[in-house]
């Protein structure tokens, strides 16, 4: 209970992810596919005004085992909320999720406008990964010099290899999300809070 009070956003979000996953697992495959289709934040839905899919698409764990995805969110978002507070922690996650989605779908819109092949307007676009990658990127960028240097380099290399191998829109979106997380780490809104948290932690250890 004490942890839930300290991490309210993480607790609520993880609960929603688990509840959604449990509900989907109880439904027939056809209903699962319909739910995912109607909550995908793809170009078609954004064009017809279904902007709420930018939020509901983040309630589905997709592409990885549910418990693994939920555990990753709990760890990354929980650490961000613990260090920076609820508003900054959840704000970073939502910033990465929403803006990376808009940028990748914006590319799809430009491709369609230019009549280029591969413009997917009704693609399956759900999941936690954009917000997760942005949050992890921000955490790494605000860490110590060694963690920042090697951690960001390793994550960038991993995401780049995935994009080169698969050529999927989501893989490109992960690189965009990483860039957004690093950009967010440079804002005074987060940097000042992270500096204060590090000073408090050092004071506690030396006390």
Number of strands: 0
**Percent helix:** over 70%
Beta content comes to under 5%
User: What is the overall number of helices?
Assistant: 11
Shape estimate: globular
What can you tell me about this protein's structure?
- This protein has 207 residues and is mainly α.
- Helix content is 77%, strand content 0%.
- The protein contains eleven helices and no strands.
- The chain has helices spanning 2-6, 8-25, 29-38, 43-47, 53-56, 66-84, 86-113, 129-141, 145-166, 169-185, 188-206.
- Helix 7 crosses helix 8, helix 7 (86-113) crosses helix 10 and helix 9 (145-166) packs antiparallel against helix 10 (169-185).
- It is globular, with a radius of gyration of 18 Å.
- The two termini are 27 Å apart.
- The model has no long low-confidence stretch (mean pLDDT 90).
Summary tags:
207 residues
Concise summary:
The chain has 207 residues and is mostly helical. 77% of the residues lie in helices and 0% in strands.
Topology of this protein?
Blueprint: H1 2-6, H2 8-25, H3 29-38, H4 43-47, H5 53-56, H6 66-84, H7 86-113, H8 129-141, H9 145-166, H10 169-185, H11 188-206
